[in-house]
Amino acid sequence: MAGSPASLNWPVNWYVLPCINPYGWERNYRRNRQRYDINRQFRGRTDCPEALLVKRLLRGRRFVLSFEMHEDSDATGYYLYEASRDGAAFADRILREVGRVAPINRDHVIDGRRSDGNGLITRPATLAALRRRPQWPMAYHVFQNHADHLIGSETSQRVGLARRVRAHHRALEVALEMLTTKAKP
Predict the structure, then answer these.
(1) How far apart are the two ends of the chain, measured CA to CA in Å?
(2) CA 102/CA 55 separation, integer angstroms
């Protein structure tokens, strides 16, 4: 799917995977029909059909930015994680802007991971640290194999759907705006 948001002066090519767990979405359940947590099936061999399909669809593709949108049933507010090969950091601005439309998760531990207390999960600083993890979510796989910059945008199910959509939309909009100032083709 191709698009060119009004705020960008150059075209943006989109590759959208709208919902990799339709079974879970319909049931508000994290796992697929075979009881796999799909978002932990992206390292090594797997027989999880959804993870295999995503890997096949992404094979041979390279992205400037991978932007994942998730929702978290346990979160108290919006949070994100970010990884960048060139050290670019969009998180602070995204969190500031999203905070205007949805509450930010201020917990110091989110989803079992350390957080800065302002909605940013602290991820391992090096690829070597990521490679040691036994199970990978899709984000790690994409960052390792397909993207130079990764943002995982997470909304809280405690917030209404319309606000969750606005939060993701604003986060994506800010990330795209920041890409334009970082490097124009």
Answers:
(1) 20
(2) 32
Encode the chain (185 residues) as per-residue pLDDT tens digits. Answer: 334 444 555 667 889 999 999 999 899 888 999 999 999 999 988 899 999 999 999 999 999 999 999 999 899 999 999 999 888 899 999 999 999 999 999 999 998 888 999 999 976 556 677 777 788 899 999 999 999 999 999 999 999 999 999 999 999 999 999 988 865 43
How far apart CA 115 and CA 131 sit, in angstroms, is 21
C-alpha gyration radius of the chain: 16
Residues sharing a CB contact under 8 Å with residue 99, sequence separation 6 or more, in sequence order: 78, 119
Distance CA 183, CA 34 (A): 43
Spell out the residues 6+ positions from residue 137 whose beta carbon is closer than 8 angstroms to its own.
39, 40, 42
The predicted model scores a pTM of 0.86
Only one residue has tokens 């083709």, namely 185
**What residues contact residue 183 under an 8 Å CB cut-off, 6+ apart?**
none
Q: How many other CB atoms are there within 10 angstroms of residue 35's CB atom?
A: 8
